[in-house]
Amino acid sequence: RFRLSGRCRGVFRLARGDRADLDLYAENGAVTVPILQTARLTLRPLAASDSTAITEALSNWDVTRWLSQVPFPYTRADADSFIGMVQHSPDDAHWAIDQGAGLIGLISVKPDLGYWLDQSHHGQGMMTEAARAVLTWYFTHHTAPVLSGHFAGNAASRAILTKLGFTDTHIETITPVNADTPVPLQRMVLTRDHWHTLRSAAQ
Known about the structure:
It is a single chain. This protein is 30% helix and 24% strand. By secondary structure, it is α+β, with helices and mostly antiparallel strands. Helix 1 packs across helix 3 and helix 4 (126-141) crosses helix 5 (155-164). The longest helix is centred in the middle third of the chain and has 16 residues, at 126-141. It starts with a strand and ends with a helix.
């Protein structure tokens, strides 16, 4: 279970044509998100002070190679630019995943669900925990399905998505920004009805 906290202002449209009752605009025009609290994690807005942790985590090829929009090598300038973009992007919701001592990963819904976690925290169920909180928040305020996907060979990510209830739709071929050759991407989807069915069965 998780708690929702934080105050926001304005109107936020996460999915076009889909009504949202949360305002995610701060007074300075930056986009913020509600804080989501899980048993072990705090999901909070990104801050400029997260730049070092992001740079260190994404300098690890074993993390970055599974991400389609992350360059490699990854620099502090890349992290600073990314944080600035996120803070002023009205159609994206990004959360820093914080275990108490700073950022250990990132999760977003646009409405594609995307995520990464510092390698030192893999295999502990943290991404599933974070994603459940984000999906519960999303489907509380939106009706549009959530899309996601994983590269061929990324068994860990597939395990997370299937555990959350995502199902396969099709395979497409894309060229990640950190690669020179196209790779297959398994696309997946999760509907609001299926999510609620799964959550009801789990209670």
